[in-house]
């Protein structure tokens, strides 16, 4: 379908779609039941056209949204021609377009009269979907059948009426049905909000013209993407990073990428990456695609629309039966960790192409701390806490801390929320000095968070990484400090733990996690001494760190800079 594109109307429709998807996202935030959605904000919203092509995405989790096209095609294959107003199709099966079982997709067809106009899409990470452990997110599951309830594309609502059979099936297979069903209803409400607003656009511009503008938006994003890639130097750029281990052995898991720039397109090839593993770290191809699209998008200009047109310029290859394209019955509940490492690996290669746009490695993705069990009154509780930490140093600025990973748009759960709703006490939530990588622009500081169990016992699943393969620096910047996990007994005895943990904790025990900082960018000896002194004064680094990493002499107590001493020290270090 073609229309004569009026630039003003084009801009109005583009911004109108952006406003609609953001309103959908706000609806989820206002109506969700669980803290993983309403506080951590682990959810996404988008609109696809009638053929399933994503035309707008909310300011939510980019890692989700690149997977929408594949899931959308599965829904169309199953239900095209058999959808009506008020229907809502859900799925979570990683082998039918999903990513991992806690992420439940919802697709609502949007109609103008009898004509299918578009689809509203909302993805939420649910607190629990059953399986062998509370939270359904363990990294040591060995097959998908252990991880919870698999949902093929099915109608959860038909003509606005809940499918009681499917609802009941879900209720009986999850540990916190009130929260799970409540969040599903929040997804439905958000899809309805998008439907109402999109129909207003259709009434204003007409269905035919509006669908024509949808196609124009996709073409516009593709054209802008290709125009910018065409300015990149042709060639193949490689990088390798690692996941520390899979939790079963000490063998590192390599993630290898080769980005080939040819004209106005890029080929991203992950050949040589680790084969699929027994642990739940396997990333479905749809999720690997999503991580790849996100990484390239971060290297592009900010004014390119975020829609599936961008994806057309990017080809992704991942070997079958690899950790980036597993086959049944591979487990994948903890696939996000692998996705974060894909992004880090992509950034390492992209830094060779556009070095003025790519930061050093951040904390390596969020750490997931899951505590679940039963209170004294036998009612269940589940904490799924995702700790967001630090960025690496940027080409012209320091990294920042206490902030979401660039591939997400999450938030740290407020301590008050955790303590008021669960039998746990958070005894530390702080920035950790000296955890940043040094550079002309230093990385952000790592976070620490500790949890003391107040129930008789609780199951702990902790998924962390970057203990051995620490966040890298760029352009001469240094690595950041790696992750640390410790268990503290009530008597004060301390036990060091590996990066992946699944164990039972008992009343009075405390789990303490220190997240990695961000790598540094540029030569540390070129950092302005006044900035180093300010970091010492702010207790972000010590005077010893300032001397050893930056060659800067600062008084630890006053933060006063010794200009002459710094000049002499740097001169001697250079010699």
What does this structure look like?
It is a single chain. This protein is α+β, with helices and mostly antiparallel strands. The protein folds into three domains: 7-223, no CATH class; 359-527, no CATH class; 529-574, no CATH class. The chain is built from 13 helices and 20 strands. The chain has helices at residues 7-31, 35-38, 62-65, 68-79, 164-173, 177-205, 207-229, 285-298, 335-350, 415-421, 529-537, 543-550, 563-574, and strands spanning 43-49, 54-57, 88-91, 103-112, 115-125, 154-158, 161-162, 235-243, 253-262, 265-269, 314-317, 367-374, 380-387, 424-432, 446-453, 457-463, 484-488, 494-497, 500-506, 510-514. Strands 2-1-5-4-3-6-7 form a seven-stranded antiparallel beta sheet, sandwiched between helices. A hairpin with a 4-residue loop joins β1 and β2. The longest helix is centred in the first third of the chain and has 29 residues, at 177-205. The radius of gyration is 24 Å and the shape is globular. The model has no long low-confidence stretch (mean pLDDT 95).
For this entry, give a set of tags.
13 helices, 20 strands, 3 domains, alpha+beta, 5-stranded antiparallel β-sheet, 575 residues, globular
- Rg over alpha carbons: 24 Å
According to DSSP, the number of beta strands is 20
Percent helix, as a range, is 25-40%
Strand proportion: 15-25%
Mean pLDDT: 95
Content-based structural category = alpha+beta
Strand neighbour order, sheet with most strands: 2-1-5-4-3-6-7
Total domains: 3
Helical stretch tally? 13
The description of the largest β-sheet is: 7 strands, antiparallel
For the record, give the distance between the C-alpha atoms at the N and C termini, rounded to a whole number: 69 Å
Residue ranges: pLDDT <50 for 5 or more in a row? Answer: none
Can you tell me the overall shape? globular
């Amino acid at each position: 379908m073609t229309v004569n594109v009026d630039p003003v109307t084009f801009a109005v429709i583009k911004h109108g779609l952006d406003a609609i998807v953001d309103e959908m996202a706000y609806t989820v935030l206002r109506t969700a039941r669980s803290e993983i959605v309403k506080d951590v904000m682990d959810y996404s919203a988008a609109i696809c056209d009638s053929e399933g092509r994503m035309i707008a995405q909310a300011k939510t989790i980019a890692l989700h949204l690149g997977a929408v096209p594949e899931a959308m095609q599965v829904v169309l294959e199953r239900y095209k021609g058999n959808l009506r107003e008020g229907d809502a199709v859900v799925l979570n099966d990683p082998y039918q377009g999903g990513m991992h079982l806690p992420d439940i997709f919802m697709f609502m067809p949007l109609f103008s009269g009898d004509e299918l106009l578009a689809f509203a899409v909302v993805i939420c990470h649910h607190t629990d979907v059953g399986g062998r452990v509370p939270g359904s997110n363990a990294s040591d599951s060995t097959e998908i059948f252990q991880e919870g309830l698999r949902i093929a594309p099915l109608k959860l609502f038909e003509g606005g009426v809940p499918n009681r059979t499917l609802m009941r099936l879900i209720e009986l297979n999850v540990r916190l049905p009130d929260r799970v069903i409540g969040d599903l209803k929040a997804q439905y409400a958000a899809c309805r909000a998008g439907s109402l607003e999109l129909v207003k656009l259709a009434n204003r511009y007409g269905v035919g013209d509006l669908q024509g503008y949808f196609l124009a938006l996709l073409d516009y994003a593709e054209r802008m993407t290709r125009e910018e890639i065409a300015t990149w130097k042709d060639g193949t750029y490689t990088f390798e990073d690692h996941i520390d281990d899979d939790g079963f052995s000490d063998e590192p898991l390599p993630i290898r990428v080769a980005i080939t720039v040819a004209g106005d397109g890029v080929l991203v090839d992950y050949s040589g990456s680790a084969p699929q593993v027994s642990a739940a770290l396997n990333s479905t191809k749809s999720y690997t695609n999503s991580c790849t699209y996100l990484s390239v998008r971060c290297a592009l200009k900010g004014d390119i629309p975020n829609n599936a047109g961008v994806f057309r310029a990017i080809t992704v290859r991942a070997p079958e039966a690899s950790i980036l394209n597993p086959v049944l019955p591979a487990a994948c509940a903890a696939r996000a960790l692998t996705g974060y490492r894909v992004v880090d690996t992509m950034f390492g290669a992209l830094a060779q192409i556009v070095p003025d746009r790519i930061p050093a490695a951040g904390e390596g993705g969020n750490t997931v701390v899951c505590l679940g069990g039963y209170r004294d009154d036998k009612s269940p509780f589940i904490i799924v806490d995702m700790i967001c930490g630090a960025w690496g140093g940027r080409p012209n600025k320091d990294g920042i801390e206490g902030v979401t990973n660039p591939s997400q748009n999450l938030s740290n759960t407020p301590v008050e929320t955790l303590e008021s709703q669960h039998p746990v006490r958070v005894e530390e939530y702080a920035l950790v000095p000296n955890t940043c990588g040094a550079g002309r622009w230093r990385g952000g500081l790592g976070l620490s968070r500790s949890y003391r169990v107040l129930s008789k016992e609780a199951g702990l699943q902790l998924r962390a990484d970057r203990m051995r393969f620490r966040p890298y620096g760029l352009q001469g910047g240094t690595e950041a400090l790696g992750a640390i996990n410790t268990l503290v007994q009530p008597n004060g005895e301390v036990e060091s733990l590996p990066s992946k943990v699944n164990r039972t904790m008992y009343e009075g025990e405390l789990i303490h996690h220190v997240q990695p900082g961000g790598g540094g960018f540029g030569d540390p000896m070129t950092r302005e001494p006044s900035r180093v002194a300010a970091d010492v004064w702010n207790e972000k680094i010590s005077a010893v760190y300032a001397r050893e990493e930056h060659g800067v002499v600062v008084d630890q107590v006053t933060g006063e800079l010794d200009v002459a001493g710094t000049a002499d020290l740097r001169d001697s270090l250079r010699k």
